[in-house]
Q: What sequence folds into this?
């Protein structure tokens, strides 16, 4: 009886890999490589971000990111990480890492991408958020960076990633 059940599940899993309707492969590590250490870093921070509905930073990421994967196509497209519309998987460039960007930088990116799964699937103004007030992915990232004292990085994003063209 158990074998029949397993075969049924295995068949279901195979269907899940259909790229037209991608779903989460739960056999993989949810946060691969150093991304788990970034989640752990967020867990040590008791600050309550004003845009995250009272959740802790790590709770927010864990609630909204069902699966992260390293994907070299992300770097080829010129990004550090992205979420594709309708795809529950967060795609991360291997080059977007703690060694290059720092723990807080990667943590800020992870919060940014988590926001995309929480009602802000795209940026309202192309590659920008139109305003801080909309509370999109960049707003979440910027407020986090300011909380961590990365004022120059946050100021750069306020200048380059917020506002209409
Ligand atoms: Zn984004």
A:
């Amino acid at each position: 009886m158990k074998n029949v059940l397993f075969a049924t599940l295995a068949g279901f899993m195979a269907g899940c890999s259909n790229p037209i309707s991608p779903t989460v492969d739960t056999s993989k590590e949810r946060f691969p490589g150093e991304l788990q250490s970034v989640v752990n870093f967020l867990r040590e921070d008791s600050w309550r971000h004003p845009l995250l509905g009272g959740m802790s930073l790590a709770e927010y990421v864990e609630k909204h990111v069902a699966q992260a994967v390293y994907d070299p196509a992300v770097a080829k497209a010129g990004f550090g990480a992205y979420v594709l519309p309708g795809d529950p998987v967060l795609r991360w460039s291997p080059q977007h890492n703690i060694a290059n960007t720092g723990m807080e930088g990667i943590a800020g990116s992870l919060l940014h991408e988590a926001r995309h799964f929480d009602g802000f699937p795209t940026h309202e103004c192309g590659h920008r958020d139109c305003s801080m007030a909309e509370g999109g992915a960049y707003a979440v990232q910027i407020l986090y960076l300011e909380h961590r004292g990365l004022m120059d990085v946050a100021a750069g994003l306020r200048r380059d990633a917020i506002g209409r063209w």
Summary: The pocket of zinc ion is lined by residues 112, 116, 123, 137 (CB under 6 Å). The chain is about 45% helix and 5% strand. Residues 1-21 have pLDDT under 50 and may be disordered.
